[in-house]
Amino acid sequence: MELSGPKTTPALAILLAFLVGYIAYTGAVIDAVGLKGLAGTKARITAMRDTIAIFEAATDSAKKELARGTVADVRKRLETYRSSLVLLRRLVPERNEVPNLLDDISTRGKIRGVTLSQVVPQQVEAGPAPFNTYKYNMSVIGRYDQIGQFLADVASLQRIIVPYDVTVSAANSSTAKVLGDSTDALLEARFQIRTYVKSSSPEGEASGT
């Protein structure tokens, strides 16, 4: 059977073209010369796209988890800061509440049975920022145990009040007589108190009393 006749030539050409196209698509010929076939390349592209999609989904999930954790941490820190601010406002007033503190001290003195005999304000000092420091020279008259309890009460008030430079001596006889004591057991305690008030100026400059 001859394949070179005029009638068979177009059929052979069509068959040959079909075979070349099929082989090129599957990569058989291209792989034979060291290149990758189109079908394999398409498969790898599809696999790569799927891998990228998986990584993107994992990244988005990690971002969401991180965001949730960060928000929770921020909220926790915020609550801690709020609690600290409430405590700070209770210990150190934002405005001048020293007169109220002096009333508290006077009340403690009455409870403990001592007489507040002297309250002398000192110059207000700037600092430590952002506060001003208020100092008072004070003295009380009473018995030893009463004075000790009174000083402990002052130190335990809710505001930050520091009694210091305490000196104790026998009370003046005339003062004791005025107070109705004839046992010579009264003592006079002289000391200073220091407290802090939030400054009204950004620089924390002190103002006179």
State the major sheet: 5 strands, antiparallel
User: Share of helix among residues?
Assistant: 40-55%
- What is the level-2 CATH architecture name of the domain at 98-198? 2-Layer Sandwich
Q: Report how far the terminal alpha carbons are from each other.
A: 128 Å
Summarize the structure.
53% of the residues lie in helices and 21% in strands. With 209 residues, it is α+β, with helices and mostly antiparallel strands. Strands 1, 2, 3, 4 and 5 form a five-stranded antiparallel beta sheet that branches.
What report would you give on this structure?
It is a single chain. With 209 residues, this protein is an alpha+beta fold. 53% of the residues lie in helices and 21% in strands. The chain is built from 6 helices and 5 strands. The protein has helices spanning 8-26, 28-32, 38-91, 98-112, 144-155, 173-178; strands at 115-121, 125-126, 131-142, 161-170, 187-198. Strands 1, 2, 3, 4 and 5 form a 5-stranded antiparallel beta sheet that branches. Helix 4 (98-112) runs antiparallel to helix 5. The protein starts with 7 loop residues before the first helix and ends in an 11-residue tail after the last strand.
Notable characteristics:
209 residues, alpha+beta, Alpha-Beta Plaits, disordered C terminus
SSE order and pairing:
Blueprint: H1 8-26, H2 28-32, H3 38-91, H4 98-112, E1 115-121, E2 125-126, E3 131-142, H5 144-155, E4 161-170, H6 173-178, E5 187-198
Antiparallel strand pairs: 1-3, 2-3, 3-5, 4-5
Helix pairs in contact: 4-5
